[in-house]
Q: What sequence folds into this?
């Protein structure tokens, strides 16, 4: 089961990523733009997710995904670390959020952080 240390290690392995404390929690930013946070007791990770996709995720896997009340108006979703299958799934979640925050030039420079492989 992935944990907060795995979140930190994987997030910081993504190009041009830095960790910064905000709201008394670790946040991860690409080119200065936040793409992940480790809220509360670090048993979950908050990531960017288009609103139209996050509702589907919550309905499909409510034990894994949920929307925190104070984040409902934003394009963010919470992911329970204990519910993730493995480190690979965590990497996919973080890379997807990173791609949403990264500027176009950085995306072009790092095609290896492309979309997850289709099933």
A:
């Amino acid at each position: 089961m992935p944990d907060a240390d795995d979140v930190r290690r994987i997030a910081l392995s993504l190009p041009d990523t830095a960790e910064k404390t905000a709201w008394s929690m670790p946040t991860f930013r690409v080119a200065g733009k936040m793409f992940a946070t480790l809220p509360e007791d670090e048993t979950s990770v908050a990531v960017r997710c288009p609103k139209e996709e996050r509702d589907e995720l919550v309905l499909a896997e409510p034990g894994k995904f949920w929307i925190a009340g104070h984040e409902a108006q934003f394009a963010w979703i919470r992911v329970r670390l204990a519910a993730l299958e493995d480190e690979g799934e965590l990497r996919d979640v973080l890379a997807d959020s990173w791609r949403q925050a990264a500027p176009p030039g950085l995306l072009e420079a790092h095609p290896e952080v492309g979309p997850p492989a289709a099933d």
